[in-house]
Design goal:
With 266 residues, the chain is of the alpha/beta class. The protein has helices at residues 39-43, 66-74, 87-96, 111-117, 144-151, 172-182, 222-231, 251-264, and strands spanning 6-11, 14-19, 27-29, 56-60, 79-84, 105-108, 123-128, 154-165, 187-192, 198-204, 233-234. Helix 2 links the parallel strand 4 (56-60) and strand 5.
Length: 266
């Protein structure tokens, strides 16, 4: 596509969407299973933690529609809008991931530009799951200014759910994104998954009732709810001195340094 080289690979009936060298996984599609045993499952449980009934949601970084498919399944009444910057990815998802069968309004656009310039509909829940060049969150989706723009598109008591790849909550990447969120939202929560690199981050202007996790009756979600209940933590530290701004958000540099240190002790 105009942005990247797109790959769809199939193994034992499961299709995976990757880009460029294929180091990351952008989407997973198994026609026999809704859950993936990946971070999408933990993002998709977010509506249960909202302080209000989630009637509509925005996904920034739709990719192949893994998350939207799960939300269609578990929350059939939720209206969804999915923003994906690459029309080539949308085309591949329609051909190989049954994206056309989903109940989602698909928008081909940059996520921040959509938030800033589209019709000012507000959402109960906004998911941020956009990655460029396989491993990097686009820097302009990590800044104080972006999260301020997001707040203008959230309904009262709305919730942000974000996927961040980091090997530590104390990494400069995590501190920068959490600090930027903290300039807008008083309550930030992190669940680090078993792989130790995927982190589901929730942010809200009001405190989240984590006890709701124990009241989820859906048996498909039982293991996920138990894991989140045992591992979610509210961020008590303040990282507002580490914030990313539109003038300085070195996301790619910090990501590279983090993985170099992890892999080769650079």
């Amino acid at each position: 596509s105009m942005y990247q080289y797109i790959q769809v690979r199939e193994k034992e009936g499961t299709k995976v969407l990757s880009v460029n060298e294929g180091m990351g996984t952008q989407s997973v599609y198994d026609p026999e299973n809704i859950l993936t045993n990946k971070y999408y499952d933990y993002l998709s449980i977010s509506p249960y933690l909202s302080n209000k009934v989630v009637n509509n949601g925005l996904i920034i970084g739709l990719a192949g529609g893994t998350l939207s498919r799960q939300l269609n399944h578990f929350f059939p009444g939720m209206q969804l809008t999915g923003v994906e910057i690459d029309p080539g990815v949308i085309k591949a998802a329609k051909e190989h991931f049954n994206l056309d069968d989903q109940r989602v309004n698909i928008i081909a656009a940059d996520g921040r530009m959509f938030v800033k310039y589209s019709e000012k509909e507000k959402y109960d829940l906004i998911f941020i799951d956009a990655y460029s060049q396989e491993l990097y969150i686009p820097w302009h989706l990590t800044t104080r200014e972006f999260f301020s723009e997001i707040s203008g598109r959230l309904n009262d008591d709305g919730l942000i759910a974000m996927n961040i790849v980091s090997n530590s909550q104390e990494s400069s990447l995590m501190k920068g994104i959490i600090g930027s969120l903290q300039t807008i939202y008083d309550h930030v929560y992190v669940t680090t998954l078993n792989n130790k690199t995927s982190n589901v981050v929730l942010a809200s202007s009001t405190e989240i009732d984590l006890g709701k996790l124990k009241n989820i009756n859906n048996p498909e979600y039982s293991q996920i709810a138990n894991y989140v209940s045992e591992n979610i933590r509210k961020v008590d530290k303040t990282y507002k001195n580490d914030i990313f701004t539109d003038n300085k958000a070195p996301v790619e540099l910090l990501s590279d340094k983090m993985w170099m240190k992890e892999i080769i002790n650079f």
